[in-house]
Structures are given as C-alpha cells and as structure tokens.
C-alpha cells in the first residue's frame, strides 16, 4: 500500500490528540510523509461519553501525502459516542441516520477497532443510541472489518500490579490502542518506546505504566493473531517530498526532518527571520483559538531573545507591536478572525505610519465567534479590504503546516524591506495539523535587508522621505539627528508633517498603493503544478485537460490531489496582494478555471476584480472542515 | 539643556487661551531640566487636542489613534527600556476609549510618564461630555444634562495599584514642571493629571481652584516631608480624624476622614508620598472632589472645606514591567544552551531520510 488514513477518536479526556501525534511522529521517523488533522470540540471537557465530547485525530501517511485524507482506512473508536460520530459524520445528530458513503468518516472496507468495554447500556444511553446493538443500529456494512477489543479490561489487567488507582489506570487505555495500531503497521517497538519516553519526559512516573500498556497492546495484536492483515507501507522516496519553501530551495541528501505543527512552524519562521535580519523579535498578542500556540511558542523562546507580550486585549496586542516597530524591532501580532477585526484600525495606523508589522491571522469558522476550533478561509476579504480608507497591505498565505515556516519568514522579509504591514493567512487546518518539515539552516534562508536610512539624511530626515522604490526610510528612537514625528494623520509628501491639502492626499494614497504594487517585483512568479506523472492517464480525464484548478492557502494539498485525479493543472497562490506578476499570463492559457475555496468565493471575487475579462467558475465548501478531494473531483467532472 | 532645544519647528495650534499651551511650555522646561537628549526621548499620544503635543516637541514622537497611546507606549518602552517614554492623553482618550490600556499600563507599572490632560470635555470633536464631566453637565451630546457618574482619575490610578500620581493646574507652571520632573524620576507608570481649561467648550471648568484669588484657599500643594499647610495666610492645615461609630462616632461618614484644622494644630499631617499603603493617598487625592464634581461648585469660602490636592500625592517604588520582562529574558538566555536558530533546531527530535 502507498497511503493509509488512520483516525483515532474517543472522549475529550481519552488522550486522542497525544495518541495520534505519537503515532504520526513515529510514522514520520520511519520515513513516511504525514499530514495530520486534529478535530476536537471547542469545550475543554464536555460531559464524558457524550456526542459533543468526541475528540479525534486523523493522519494520512505514506507517499505523496497531500492531505490528512478524506476518509479513514483504520479507525480506533474508544467509546460509543466516538463510534457513532465516526460512522455518521456530520449526521450524528440525525435520529435515523445510518452509515453512508458520503457522510461516514471511514471507508466501506475500513478496519474499525472498538473498545467493547465502553458499549455498556449506560454508555449507549449517553451517546443517544436507541437499541442495545450499536453496530446494527448504525448500519455499519459487513465489508467494514470490526475488531472488538476489551481495551479497558486489558489495560486494567496490564496494570494490575502497578499499585495505581483505577482512574490513573484508565487514563492509560489510549496506549493500549496505540500499541495495537503499532502492531497493525508493524512499527518497531524500540523506537516507539523511545518516543514515549520523550513525550513523558516531564512526568517520569508515567513512563513505566504507559510503556507496559503500549507493549501489551502490541503483543495482544501479535499473540492473538487478530483476524486482521498487518498493513505494510512502502517507505517514501525522499525525492518525492514536496518542500514548498518560499525560496524554492531544494532538498539535499544531508537534510534532516522532523514533524512540525503549523503554529510552531510559524513561530519558528519569525525567529529565523529576526536572527537573519539582525532585529529583535517582538510579539504582542492576546489568547485566541486557534492562534494561541504561536504566543505559547514565542513566550517560551526567551532563549532566542524573543520578547512576547500577552497584552490586555487584541488591540493592545497589535498596538504594543506597533510601538516596538516604531522603536526599531521586528514586530508581530498573532490572532484569528475576530481579533483581526479588532486590530483593523491599528493595522491602518501601521499602513499610514509606514511601519513594518507582521500580522498572523490563523483563520477559523466565522462570522463572530463562529466555529472557534474549525477551519475556514473566510477572512480573505477582511485581510485585503477590512480597514477604513484606501489602506493597502500585503497579504500572503501559507499552504502547508510545514511551509508556515517559509511564509512567516517571507512575511517578515517583505515587511522589513518594504515598511508595510504584511498579513499572513493560515488556518486551523494548518495551525493544528502537523507535517514533515525539512529543517533548514539559517545560512540557506534568503537574505533580509531591513530598510534603513542614509547617513547623509542626518539632520534633514523626515518620515516622508522615500527611496527609488517608493519605500520610506526607517529611522527610530535612539538614532541621533533623525528625530521626527510619525502620525496616523495624512502627511505632507515632502515635509512629512500633517497635511490636509487635497492634491497631497491623493498623491499619498497613490504612493502607498504603489509601494505595495512594487513588491510584485521581488516575489516569485506563480508556478503551475502539473498532475503527478504517477497518475495513469484516464480517457475520462481528456475533458479536463484544459482546466485549471485555482486555490490559495491551506487547500493546496487537497487541490493537488484533486488535480492529480482529474489530470488537470493547479495554480495555487501563496502571494495574494500583490499577485505574482505572471498571474494574467497563466490564467489566460486555460479555457476553464475553477477557483476552489472554503468560503463562498472570496478569492474568486478578488480575481474577477483584477481580471474582469477572464471567466472564473467556483467550487466552495463552508462546513468548517478541509475539502474532501472526492467532492472537488466530482464537481469538476460533472459541471 | 535649554527648553528651546525641545521646541519643534511646528506652529502650535492649540486655541488661544487653551491650558495646553502652558503644559507644552512646562513639558519643554521639564525635559530640559531632566536633560535627556532629544533622540533618547519618545513622546506617544492618541487622539485629541492634547494628543497633538508630540508635534511641538523636538523629540521622537508618534501621534497614533484614539485611545491606543498607552498600548503603543507600552510597546516602545518594553522593547526599548533605554528610551525615555512619555504619553500624552486626555480624559476622553485615556479614560473612555483607552480606559483598558490605561489601567493595564498602571497595573503593570510600565516606566512611562503619562500626562493626563483633564478638561472634562471632548474638545476636538467640538464639545461632548467626557468620563470626568460632572453629573448633569449639559453638552452637545447631553442636551438635558449627563446622567452618568464621573471618574475621579486618581481613584482609577490607585485602584489599578498605581505607584505614582500627581495633580497639577495648567496655570501653575512651576508646580507642573516639578510634577513632570518627579514623574520622570519615578521608575514606573507615573500619572500626572493636568487640570486644563478648555477655553472654547468648557471655559472655567476648574476656575474654583484656578482663579488666582481662590487658588490658595481652595488647593494645597503637597510636598513630600512637608506639613500640609494651605490658605492665603498659611493658616490652615490638614489632619486625619479616625471616626469609630462603635465608640460613638458618626455613622455613615467613613472610618477615616481628613479635616481642616488651624495650621498650628499638632495634628497637622506631614506628607509622605513614599508610603506604600495607599489609604491616606486616596483620601488626599479625593479631597475637594465632591465639590469638584458638583456642577457649579460654590466659588466662595465654605467653612471647613477641604482643598483639592496638587503636587505629587503618591510616589512609591515597585518593579517596573519593562525591567521584569527584560530581566527574565536575560536570565533565561543566560542559562540557555541554544541561543541561535541553528542551535535551536538542533534540539529537535529529527532524522534523515
């Protein structure tokens, strides 16, 4: 087999995120590509055993992994509620719902491992079953291979001599399931034990019992020779690893890899950029799901001289950053959609004052509080236009958990070199998902030359003075002879002081617009992604050969997989404002363009405004979930 | 240094007769007296008449957006503690739209010098009531009089555990300069409430204390270590009375109260601005506020009436936020094995493929 999708699901307290992450990390270490999707409720702890409390973690592993997978091939369901949710998908609340090819979260031929100890009458009642037979009630087809395991009993048995209390024992159930999955995939236990020791480094007392349970789980699979075929995945070929680094850097044989979550990759991109630019990294932020891990990561990185401030509110988050930028630092703020709304006025100030500022928007389902833990691409127009006045800022988007690093780095480079706010768009899917990341060396990353000020301007400096590109010079407090007053009011184009002159205002509006447009000169051209050669040519794909899929941000993996199936090309955008210079040239080569987004068509609307003569079709999903590749393929084929 | 070194080349656009002119002059004098070079000074403001101040000071300046000066100043000072950072703000900018940043910069004790220009009106938007306007105040946005209870800024500062509070009058430039210099010398968030007159929209709002013939009777300038004496003839002093209702005291009048006594009364208090306990500072800061918050305070003599306190009321030491943040970074970095990006990535669990 080339690729497998595994889904761990259970109660919020069952440790599914940890279990899934450990499995994914070992898979990555064993040479597989991975892409993960944590899928958990917004409540920290919903009532135990209820449908609302189901937490899941999905990972696709293998070769040419583009997404975390549409549907699972292997499922671990730790309780009755999890069994119901993964069988019925979004229809779990419908009283008469059955397993259904469209909505179920696993395939018709999946392996379904279920804890039979968690299907008591009480458990079934909590999960709102109507009959005592859950499998029958859910209409799970016979083709699904159900593996009943008494997880709770077996875990208790494994720890009967440990002297641990019942509650602590039950917390180890997930490790039995993990051990069983390790057996299923024939993973080496020495490595698995080493990884477990790493994970529990800070709680050494938990290492021995968890190891015992995990090994027992593995042996249970081995000894009882469960009536299941082990899964043997072919190892990934290194050259197939898609490294969408912003500078297009290539892999070399010496490369080291790790698995990284998008938010951590984002934080580390900022750290690398600060060091490269010779600037101190400042983060002003306020906790908000799903962006908070960026704050967590940077608050922990004082060793890297990072100053991370937890401000009193979203506005103070961006404003402290603007203060740090005014004082000469590489300043950033991290947030999600609601926070971006609160920061709009201050971002306008940074546009007007022409200060470098990186704003990270980890998008979630909106509007208002919306779906805090779900993914969506609905902030694009807010990022592009959501400010008063003519207020252009740079907008770029990461497209994989790993390349969050590259685009965070790129956001800093653009901001510092062009004296502008840069809004970096990621989303829940990228932020919480993990992917294989080739660890770069600082030396191989692109140079960053923060805008400075020529020494000869000493004594004559004002904040309106620009270089040949139209980028204003940057002087900041502490520099003798460059004292000046910066403002959010309109400034005189020559003197830099307050001006309400009509012609001057128009001149300044155009100067700020031009400054953003000229950035297109220094960003890479759009590259067409061709369908993978490994895909066999299907005559049915002939009709789609003149078709171009278009996307932006986190959907790249899904669109790439869809393009492969369709045998059509993909244009995936990481640079949105300004667009790459060859955008028109590329778009005009196709007879059919389908813009696919997790919103109602925001990027499509933006493209139509830029290229009114080009026709754009659109395919949209707004369910708080990543795309399903199959649905994109069906849409393009059938419309 | 000379005050002229701190004057910018900009024409000062406050209305003729506005109290901000005097504070501007006092700021230039105070900055010269402090003697920190212009390039080491950053003056941050929000929006409002007083927030124009940075334009008239030949230092680094940033006239930002409404209410956010405090957060931006916090960013400047925390990231660059070597700079001297001033914040210029008004009663609307600081206490209404920027109220959250105001209490948090004070709570954190960021080493900022905050000038709170209190004219009890929105001037730049042409005459609406502010959070410090007395109840019943008639303005364009309160044509039948406000129904709101106003703030006393000092109470807000002390409630946010402030370490420095001073109050001054626009017309008293020497006291203003003294307060501004003391604010700079204090390490932490220093709030100087400047009672300023808005000649256009709220003329005479502070006249019961500002008028020359009334000032000495209606106000007292507190100085650390000096007896609290006031009055035209220096014949009155402030004393503390402990009122214990259970021992026959007056019910409903508070446990402690300040009273006016003859200057030679042995009970006259000596001002201790450095006392950590804010109880007495609060009583001092609230003196005369009842009268001040009255829509039409009686201008004449009122038997036994407490004067309004000017000068440095509270000035106590506490760790500053900017020091704490920077010290923690230095401490962690000092012990860290990985200090660069490449060293950091080397600590990751990693493998080759």
In short:
The complex is a heterodimer of chains A (639) and B (353). Chain A contains 21 helices and 21 strands.
Strand line-up of the largest beta sheet of chain B: 2-1-3-4-6-5-11-7
User: Helical segment tally of chain B?
Assistant: 12
Oligomeric form of this entry?
heterodimer
Q: Mind telling me the C-alpha Rg of chain B?
A: 22 Å
CATH architecture of the largest domain in chain A: 3-Layer(aba) Sandwich
Helix content of chain A: 25-40%
Shape of chain B: globular
Stated plainly, the CATH topology of the largest domain in chain A is called: Pyruvate-ferredoxin Oxidoreductase, domain 3
Strand line-up of the largest beta sheet of chain A:
9-8-10-11-13-12-19
As a whole number of angstroms, the C-alpha radius of gyration of chain A is: 26 Å
Name the average pLDDT of chain B. Answer: 95
Q: How many structural domains in the coordinates of chain B?
A: 1
CATH fold assignment of chain B: Rossmann fold
The appropriate CATH architecture of chain B is 3-Layer(aba) Sandwich
* % residues in beta strands of chain B: 15-25%
| Low-pLDDT windows of residues of chain A | 238-251
**Structural class by SSE content of chain B:** alpha/beta
Structure characterization notes:
The complex is a heterodimer of chains A (639) and B (353). Chain A is built from 21 helices and 21 strands. With 639 residues, chain A is α/β, with parallel strands linked by helices. Chain A has four domains: 3-224, 3-Layer(aba) Sandwich (Pyruvate-ferredoxin Oxidoreductase, domain 3); 258-444, Rossmann fold; 455-522, no CATH class; 528-638, Rossmann fold (3-Layer(aba) Sandwich). In chain A, the strands form four sheets. Chain A has a seven-stranded mixed β-sheet, with helices on both faces. Chain A is globular, with a radius of gyration of 26 Å. Residues 238-251 of chain A have low confidence and may be disordered. Chain B is α/β, with parallel strands linked by helices. Chain B has one domain (3-224, 271-280, 306-325): Rossmann fold (3-Layer(aba) Sandwich), CATH 3.40.50.970. An eight-stranded mixed β-sheet of chain B has the order 2-1-3-4-6-5-11-7, sandwiched between helices. In chain B, strands 8-9-10 form a three-stranded antiparallel β-sheet. The longest helix of chain B has 16 residues, at 19-34. Chain B is globular. The N and C termini of chain B lie far apart (66 Å). Classes of the chains: A alpha/beta (639), B alpha/beta (353). The interface between A and B is large, with 71 and 56 residues. β15 of chain A pairs parallel with β2 (60-63) of chain B.
């Amino acid at each position: 087999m080339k690729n497998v999708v595994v889904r761990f699901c259970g109660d919020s307290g069952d440790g599914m995120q940890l279990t899934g992450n450990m499995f994914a990390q070992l898979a990555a270490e064993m040479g597989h590509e991975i892409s993960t999707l944590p899928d958990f409720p917004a409540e920290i702890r919903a009532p135990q055993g209820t449908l609302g409390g189901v937490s899941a973690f999905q990972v696709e592993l293998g070769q040419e992994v583009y997404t975390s997978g549409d549907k699972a091939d292997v499922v671990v369901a730790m309780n009755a509620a999890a069994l119901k949710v993964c069988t019925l998908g979004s229809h779990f609340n419908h009283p008469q719902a059955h397993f259904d090819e469209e909505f179920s979260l696993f395939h018709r031929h999946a392996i379904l491992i279920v804890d039979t100890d968690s299907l008591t009458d009480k458990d079934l009642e909590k999960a709102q079953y109507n009959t005592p037979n859950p499998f029958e009630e859910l209409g799970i087809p016979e083709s699904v291979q159900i593996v009943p395991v008494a997880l709770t009993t077996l875990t208790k048995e494994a720890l009967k001599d440990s002297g641990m209390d019942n509650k602590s024992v039950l917390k180890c159930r997930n490790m039995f399931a993990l051990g069983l999955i390790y057996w299923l995939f024939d993973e080496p236990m020495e490595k698995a034990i080493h990884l477990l020791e790493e994970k529990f480094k800070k709680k050494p007392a938990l290492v021995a019992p968890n190891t015992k349970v995990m090994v027992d789980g593995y042996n249970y699979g081995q000894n009882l020779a469960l009536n299941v075929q082990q899964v043997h995945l072919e190892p990934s070929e290194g050259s197939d690893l898609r490294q969408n680094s912003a500078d297009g850097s290539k892999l070399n044989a010496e490369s080291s890899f790790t698995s990284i979550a998008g938010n951590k990759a984002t934080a580390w991109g900022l750290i690398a950029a600060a060091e490269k630019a010779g600037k101190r990294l400042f983060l002003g932020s306020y906790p908000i799901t799903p962006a908070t891990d960026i704050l967590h990561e940077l608050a922990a990185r004082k060793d890297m001289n990072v100053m991370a401030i937890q401000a009193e509110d979203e506005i103070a988050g961006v404003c402290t950053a603007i203060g740090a930028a005014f004082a000469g630092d590489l300043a950033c703020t991290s947030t999600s959609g609601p926070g971006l709304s609160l920061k709009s006025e201050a971002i306008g100030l940074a546009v007007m004052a022409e200060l470098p500022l990186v704003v990270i928007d980890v998008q979630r389902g909106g509007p208002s509080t919306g779906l805090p833990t779900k993914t969506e691409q609905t902030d694009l127009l807010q990022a592009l236009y959501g400010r008063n006045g003519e207020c252009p800022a740079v907008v770029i988007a990461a497209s994989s958990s790993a390349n969050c690093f590259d685009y965070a780095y790129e956001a800093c480079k653009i901001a510092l070199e062009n004296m502008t706010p840069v809004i970096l768009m990621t989303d829940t899917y990228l932020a919480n998902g993990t992917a294989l990341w080739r660890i770069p060396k600082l030396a191989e990353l692109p140079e960053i030359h923060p805008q400075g000020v020529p020494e000869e301007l000493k004594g004559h400096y004002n904040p309106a003075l620009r270089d040949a590109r139209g980028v204003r010079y940057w002087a900041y407090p502490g520099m003798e002879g460059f004292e000046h007053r910066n403002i959010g009011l309109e400034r005189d184009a020559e003197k830099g002081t307050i001006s309400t002159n009509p012609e001057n205002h128009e001149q300044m509006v155009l100067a700020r617009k031009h400054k953003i447009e000229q950035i297109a000169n220094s960003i890479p051209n759009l590259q067409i992604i061709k369908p993978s050669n490994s895909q066999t040519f299907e005559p049915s794909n002939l009709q789609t050969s003149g078709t171009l899929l278009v996307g932006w941000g986190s959907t790249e993996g899904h669109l790439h997989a869809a393009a492969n199936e369709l045998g059509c090309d993909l244009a995936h955008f990481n640079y949105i404002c300004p667009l790459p210079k060859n955008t028109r040239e590329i778009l005009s080569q196709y007879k059919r363009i389908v813009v696919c987004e997790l919103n109602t068509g925001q990027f499509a609307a933006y493209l139509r405004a830029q290229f009114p003569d080009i026709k754009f079709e659109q395919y949209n999903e707004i369910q708080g979930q990543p795309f399903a590749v199959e649905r994109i393929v069906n849409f393009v084929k059938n419309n | 240094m000379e005050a002229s070194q701190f004057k910018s080349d900009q024409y000062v656009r406050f209305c003729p007769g506005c109290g901000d002119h005097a504070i501007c002059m006092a700021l230039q004098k105070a900055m010269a007296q402090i003697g920190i070079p212009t390039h080491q000074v950053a003056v941050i403001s929000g929006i409002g008449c007083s927030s124009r101040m940075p334009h008239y000071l030949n230092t680094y300046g940033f006239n930002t957006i409404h209410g956010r000066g405090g957060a931006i100043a916090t960013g400047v000072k925390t990231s660059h503690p070597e700079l001297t950072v001033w914040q210029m703000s008004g009663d609307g900018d600081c206490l209404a739209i920027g109220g959250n940043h105001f209490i948090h910069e004070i709570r954190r004790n960021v080493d900022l010098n905050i000038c709170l220009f209190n004219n009890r009106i929105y001037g730049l938007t042409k005459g609406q009531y502010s959070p410090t306007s007395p109840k019943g105040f008639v303005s364009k946005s309160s044509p039948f009089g406000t129904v709101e209870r106003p703030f006393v800024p000092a109470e807000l500062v002390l409630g946010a555990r402030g370490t420095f509070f001073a109050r001054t009058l626009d017309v008293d430039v020497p006291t203003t300069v003294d307060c501004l210099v003391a604010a700079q010398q204090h390490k932490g968030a220093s709030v100087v409430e400047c009672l300023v007159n808005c000649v256009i929209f709220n003329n005479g709002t502070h006249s019961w204390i500002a008028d020359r013939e009334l000032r000495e009777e209606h106000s007292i300038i507190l100085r650390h270590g000096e007896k609290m004496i006031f009055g035209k003839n220096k014949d009155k002093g402030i004393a503390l009375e402990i009122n214990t209702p259970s021992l026959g005291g007056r019910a409903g009048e508070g446990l402690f109260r300040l009273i006016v006594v003859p200057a030679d009364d042995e009970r006259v208090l000596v001002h201790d601005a450095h006392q950590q306990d804010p109880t007495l500072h609060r009583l001092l800061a609230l003196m005369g506020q009842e009268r001040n918050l009255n829509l039409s305070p009686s201008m004449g003599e009122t038997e036994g009436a407490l004067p309004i306190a000017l000068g440095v009321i509270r000035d106590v030491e506490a760790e500053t936020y900017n020091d704490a943040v920077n010290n923690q970074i230095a401490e962690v970095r000092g012990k860290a094995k990985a200090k660069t990006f490449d060293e950091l990535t080397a600590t990751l669990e990693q493998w080759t493929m």
